[in-house]
Amino acid sequence: MDLKQCEEEARQAALKDIINMFQRSDQLEKLEQYRQRVARQKASVEALLKSGLQNQLDGVRVGLEQLKTCLQDVREFKRSMGVVEQLMQGVPEIYEALQDVRKENIKYSQLATAVKNLGLIYNVEASVQQTMTLIEEDNLLYAHQSLTELENARDDLLDELHMQPKQHVSDKITFKRHFEKFDTVSQALEKKLRFILSRTLETVRKEPQIIVTALRIVEREEKSDQFALQQQKVTSFLPPGRPRQWRAMAMNVLKEAVVTRIEYSKREEREDNKMWLVRVLEILRQNILVDLRVVKSLCVPCFPPHYNIFEEYVKMYHESLSNYITLPAWISSLNKFQRPLLRALFSTSSRVHSYTSSARQLYQLEMSSPKIVIVGSGASGIACATKLLDYGFDNVVIVEAESRIGGRIHTIPFADNVIDLGAQWCHGEKDNMVYELAHKHDLLDSTGDVYESYQCVRSNREVVPEDISQRLKDIVNDSLVTRQMELRNCQGSLGSYLNNKFYEALRRPENSDIDMAIAKEFFENYKKFENSVEASDTLDDVSGKGYLEYWECEGDILLNWKDKGYVEFLRLLMRSRELKTEWGVLEKRVLLNKKVTRIEWSRNDCCVQIRCADGDCFVADHVILTVSLGVLKEQQLMLFDPKLPVEKQRAIDGLAFGTVNKIFIEFPQQFWPDKWTGFTMLWRDEDIADIRGTPRAWLEDVFGFYCDHNQPRLLSGWMIGANGRHMETLPEDEILAGCMYLFRKFLQWDIPEPCNFKTSTWYTNESFRGSYSFRSMYTEEVGTSARELAQPLHVVTTKPVLNGEPTVEPLYNQSRCDKPIVQFAGEATSDHYFSTVHGAVEAGWREATRLADFYGMLRNSHKLPKSNL
Q1: HSE (CB half, 13 Å, CA atoms) of 575?
Q2: Annotated Gene Ontology MF terms (predicted)?
Q3: What is the β-pairing status of strands 678-682 and 702-708?
Q4: The pTM is what?
Q5: Which CATH class is domain 372-407+562-656+769-860?
Q6: What is the pLDDT of residues 634-663, one digit of tens each?
Q7: pLDDT in tens, 286-338
Q8: What is the rounded distance in angstroms from the CA atom of residue 839 to the CA atom of residue 829?
């Protein structure tokens, strides 16, 4: 990038930061503080750049050393190749000298083959009996192997006899008589294969491996036929019974089964029912659809690709149906009114082809509009559904356990406009798709320095001087800049790292004038603040390395939604304003109050069944779970049938999920100074000891209250951890009384009685069981990640494409096409943007794109036809 352009962008970013800092005239008093803080940040960034440059230079130095080593290796290799070349010069002479040895080896090989065949010759009777036993026991692969060994022994002897200059007819007759029972075994195996293949559509539903076994034998025989015909061209000898052409036999058996299936459809005669013709034709139509569905879903993975089995079945139905409806006996059963009707319908072969083609098109329409059920209507679920609709999927439905949409986005009317009980901010601008969408509509506004210029108040009502509190803030903020480099090799928790950094900074001479008691109180409060960022109970739970997995988007990380709330973003996704409906493109696609209790994902039909608490049941091609990690932790053992794979269970157990709660209090009028943006509560040791062990102990983890310039009479409080979860179980009047106790304990003014009050309850709500995810020490210990959580559950099927042809290796070749039948989205599945709405949305888009790729939508830029379901 051009240096001048970089400088101009930096200048514009600096101007934007200054505008955000000085939104009110009274903030100019803090100019010197801002200047000092920026200077410190600049020094930290320069140190970071210097360290990065040094790392780059170290990398170059290491690279040069490796190149030198490579040069030495090349020279050594060249020298070794010279030695090899000298040794190879004597090979032709050695080859000529071994000519006699090779001749003797050929004679020995022939003798060894003869000895082996003699053993088989003398044990023909026993081998035949053993092979027949294997066939009767359905051990067909072993039976075919034994049969092949017998045949090879016979053919080798006949071939040797054929090569003799003087052949005796009696010798051939003797050999054929000796092996005559071989034909009986071969016929028995063929009969068994015919029986299996005649029941293909029934067997493939329950025991597809039997069909695969039969086809393997057929294909082995086909290869033996080809080999025998090739050898005939060389030796003019063709083994008896070759070619067997079992592949053609298999296709004939399948065709006979189709004919039987069609003829069986005529269950009634004219005497039984006047509408018998209509009923027969309807039964035919239904049978064709059912059979084609079975062939597409279950037979295609079992048959080798070159069978083109789906198209072959369509042709077989076409021919069989054409022959069936033109049978004289069948036509004669029609009355004088029905015969002209039938002739008009099926007067030519093309009409019959049209009928079967219509059945295939109807089938493909059903198959090409897969039914997709999304569990959860939070940001991830809505993003996934709208993206699927954009791709052209039409059969999409969302089931939601709550009586509202939004999930952990929950905007409600309160005080002068609205509040967000859950997600509140757009975190950053660059590479943040929430910002990219909302910025176009001018929906966002900077929160400013509310969470930087707050006052620190002790529990004896003493306000910590601003210069002291600012220096303490700078100490913890400086460690935020440098931690990116240092945490890479951290072996402990984020808590231990921050603790060491903070007290190490306090010991510096320039900070010797800071009261250690105030510093300790501040740091205890700051750790609660950081816990609210991570959703952890304690920073000792947070992994130092895992902390770096989160990527912060550049730009303002606290962009609010003015007076509209985060729900406005959901309206953007659903195009509610554009379509002038509440749910936009998702109208009639969201089912509320549908709690999912069971997901059965290993059915024979390659579909997934979703059972709900109200008794409703859905069968779908795919289900996409966007529920919270907290719900998965609680319900994984009961929710899935069969149980989840071990690696998925490890991801659910290993990734951490915590609770952060909010408290909103509306007052009749503002009672705090205009310059205050909020305050945090620093507990003195003696005061905190007084409430511990009492009913008010939960108040210890309410760490601060902050202002909202869109709600001038409102204070919003934050609390974390086990005490936050306990607060959710308390009566509202007790919670409000506790908050008023805090105000009067810490603040020196007269506090009016509030006129409105609201708290969030994310943990006790069984649809969430917490707020958002983070990376804990246990996550690091078990070695799991969001990527493992995001991996879908698969079933074996054929991968569909728009022209109806499979694009993957079939089950026949012992490979598989993985159909993502259960998918996972939500913020916890995001590698680097977990705990955020933009992470949740990107996860929903990821899973929608996964399905689009599976169905070939991305490669073909094609939309699926509209579903009739």
Answers
A1: 10
A2: polyamine oxidase activity
A3: antiparallel
A4: 0.62
A5: alpha beta
A6: 999 999 999 999 999 999 999 999 999 999
A7: 778 888 888 887 888 888 888 888 888 888 888 887 777 665 545 455 454 44
A8: 8
